[in-house]
Task: inverse folding
């Protein structure tokens, strides 16, 4: 995987091995499934859509009633854009994706959602603490770390630290 800035600094170019593109597409399906079909008591869904007012049931209910559908729609659209961009017909080779600033930030939204779901599934509560069960879900842990690498690489290109 390679992440580079577009000429003029107005976006990001991502070059993925076909298998990486297929993985991202599958992970986008999984995020969409959690958002669409997730049970109210699913802790991963709770991480994606946390209670804005944990101490005020009525305010929390109103907030959810007025914002939840649009939040879910936005997250599902971000996953769909990733799925569309990473759709490949045949394995082998590379997939090159060019994203303008807006599209790239949409991808970052998706990657954040993905990492929140994966963190919940493997038991990562605080990224700085290594208390997650290291023997559980090696595939999910690897996907979590890889998504973090992609996210970090994109952020370096989109918002470089000026020094």
Result:
């Amino acid at each position: 995987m390679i992440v580079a800035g577009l000429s003029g600094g107005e976006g990001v170019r991502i070059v993925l091995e076909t298998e990486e593109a297929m993985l991202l597409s599958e992970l986008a399906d999984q995020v969409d499934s959690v958002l669409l079909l997730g049970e109210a008591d699913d802790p991963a869904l709770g991480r994606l859509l946390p209670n804005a007012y944990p101490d005020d049931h009525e305010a929390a209910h109103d907030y959810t009633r007025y914002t939840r559908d649009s939040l879910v729609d936005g997250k599902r659209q971000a996953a769909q854009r990733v799925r569309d961009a990473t759709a490949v017909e045949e394995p082998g080779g590379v997939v090159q994706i060019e994203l303008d600033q807006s599209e790239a930030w949409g991808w970052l939204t998706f990657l954040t959602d993905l990492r929140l779901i994966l963190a919940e599934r493997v038991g990562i509560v605080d990224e700085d603490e290594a208390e997650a069960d290291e023997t559980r879900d090696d595939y999910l842990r690897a996907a979590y770390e890889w998504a973090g690498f992609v996210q970090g690489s994109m952020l370096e290109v989109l918002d470089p630290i000026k020094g």
Observations:
- The chain has one domain: 2-158.
- The helical segments are 18-37, 43-48, 57-85, 101-122, 138-158.
